[in-house]
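Example record

The entry below shows one chain as it appears in the dataset: sequence first, then structure tokens.
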Amino acid sequence: MYGSVSFKSPDWPSRRWGWTGVTAIATMLPRQPTKCLGATQTRSAGSTIGVRLPYPYRERLDLDFDIAVVGLGYVGLPLALEAAFSGLTIAGLDVNQSLVGALSQGTSNIVEIPDADIDRALQSGFTPTLDATVLSGAAAVIIAVPTPLTDHTPDLSFVEAATASVGDHLQPGQLVVLESTTYPGTTEDIVKPLLEEHSGLKAGVDFFLAFSPERIDPGNPTWNFRNTPKLVAGIDQASTDRAAALYGRICDNVVIVSGTREAEMAKLLENTYRHVNIALVNELAILCNDLRIDIWEVIDAASTKPFGYQAFYPGPGVGGHCIPVDPNYLSYLVRRLGYQFRFVELAQEINDRMPRYVVDLVAEVLNDRKMSINGSRILLVGLAYKPDVADLRESPALEVASLLAERGAVLSYVDPYIESRGSETPDMERIDDAVEAALKCDLAVILTPHSAFDIPAIVAAAPAVLDTRGTAERGSVHTL
């Protein structure tokens, strides 16, 4: 069903990526370098794929870029930078004028990506642009736009708009790859028809099409775009081969998947797995609180088993661009088939109720001090959805803040990464000094323990602390 592709030689015959130096292992058999795609090629399974292109692909002289990346957010920008660092010329297309302007001046839009990386990429062949005509001059186009939820329903409007734009500029011989997370069938049932409609070309005959799910983990110091294994699946063998060759230039390990639907489902499985296990420990945390059992010690004890167990940890909810969103794509697909995906939907229900549970615990802690939420000065320690990032997407801290504001709390927050909260959050004072803020509050609630925080000092300064992440010394604070 899948294989691993190892790209062992950096010796490419020209600036455009091709086949020289590619060694396929596992289910993929070794292939000879191919100079053009104008001939019928016989593949390992014995099938014959006719690729009818009007010109030898690698001999085009009018290509301006190796890759055009559509969307320069948390997924597209790291991809574009790594490709530029790998010696490829990259056009970064986005509709956000201020974003493109900032990147063109060497200013990063993502806190975890320093300005120095943008400068280096610009010098290495990265061109941010608003001009969609760059799409026609790229050997490959990678779509990396958001796939949010609207009223708990998958919203593919960004993917559809980007695909239509790519189709309007699509040239014979180009490779198009979708990286945006979505439900199985999107590449072949939505992207492919749109590309064909807008271009007048036929996928698998005139151009290549593949899916390769993003696996970006913002703020992760160990796993990045290059060293995280990259899943790749094309609509046919030629598309798979072409996409694997491309990603082999910028990733250490390319994993071939037999079809686009399998690759799309694999991405959803990865995050649904985390989603349901977090829900399990969240519900256990509620149970352990009622039974006066330390959930954190329970997890530490269970983690001593060297096999058959992986630790997950409770918290105020789930956030980010994947875990709160991706399972909804899976549930949506199941509902279209006429039945419920009860296990995943139950996990969603449990994780969604955690912010309200945190607020109930706040009320209990204040009640023990003969206080109520109404009028109490509550300090929120960290707003981002995870430590050491400036990402507020789906952050449970925002719902905790809204619920506390509804009950009359006087809120303030400390977060070195978050300067602007957005209009959807309640009015809160931002304080730079966490310890000073803790001295002035009635209760500090640790929601996101950034490494910059001196948690022991905050605990010592605050009159009371609710730690939702298990980061403070147990016994000195209230916990989930």
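Notes for this example: The chain has 13 helices and 20 strands. The chain has two domains: 2-257, 276-479.
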